[in-house]
Amino acid sequence: MTAHRRLPDFIAVGPQRTGTTWLHKRLEGRVGLPQTKETDFFFKNFERGLDWYLDFFAACPDAMPMGEINPNYFGEAIACERIAATIPRCKIIVSLRDPTERAWSSYRTMRRDAWTRAGFIETVTRNPVIRESSRYTFHLENWRRNFGADRVMVCLYDDLEADPQAYLDRICQFIGIGRIVIRGSAAATERVNTVTQAPRSRRLARGARGARDWLAMHRWHRFGRALDRLGVWRAAFAGGEEFGRMDPAAEARLREHFLSEVEALEKLLGRDLRTWKLPHPRETGAGAPWKNSGGVRA
């Protein structure tokens, strides 16, 4: 029975490659989080039942707010509906990023994990997850409709880049916890889940991905973390070609494709998003800002 079990107070729903891993690391120890970052309960695992889901939170302290950070929920209408039906008073955090830069980051992740060997534009065109989760206005309106605008916080990746402390302060206030001071520390600009290389072997990467997902599904979290510390995942998912910069022609094509979506979001949020419409200057060398390194926070 789950009558005595707590449900999450908040869920950060993504979408992917918008700083959710960075946020998860900053909130660890300050809020109750599941034993694995992405349970996918309200998307892929709903039929397993609420007890299965809440078992991931069994070790969460009663005195702390409890939440989940799962970037796979944002573009899935069924996940929104299920969360609203199960936790109607849940607070929702939506994090949005320049869709062209986010697509490039997603593509590199898919290459790393051996989900695709196709080119960038071909992958973005064919991949339903990238396409659907880039419909920012449509899905944001759906989350607001289901939970109320006052219970849906919208965070922009640009603000995380500009002032990580202020970005985190807003989230802490929204979920009801004390301020987490990171200004001046490595945590403010820590590179999390960076993807700069393709794997040396797609076969090895596919096998490692399957093993990693199996461990997570069967809750062998400590073993998975031990393999991470030993460098097993890094060895399996890297060592191949460097991705380098986004092709300028591909960038121009995607910015044109996403233009109407960006303009609709500007109206919805009342925010100037002109930098999402124009090609970004690319700096190189040790002094280049981390934001130009290709999505270092995921």
**Series of secondary-structure elements, N-terminal to C-terminal:** EHHEHEHHHHEHHHEHHHEH
Rg result:
19 Å
Number of helices: 14
Task: Compute the separation of the termini in Å.
Answer: 35 Å
Care to describe what's here?
This protein has 298 residues and is of the alpha/beta class. It has a domain of 163 residues: 3-Layer(aba) Sandwich (Rossmann fold). It is built from 14 helices and 6 strands. Strands 2-1-3-4 form a 4-stranded parallel sheet, sandwiched between helices. Helix 3 runs parallel beside helix 7. The longest helix is centred in the C-terminal third of the chain and has 22 residues. The chain is globular, with a radius of gyration of 19 Å.
Short description:
This protein has about 300 residues and is an alpha/beta fold. The chain has a domain at about 10-100 and about 130-190 and about 265-270: P-loop containing nucleotide triphosphate hydrolases (Rossmann fold), CATH 3.40.50.300. The chain has 14 helices and six strands.
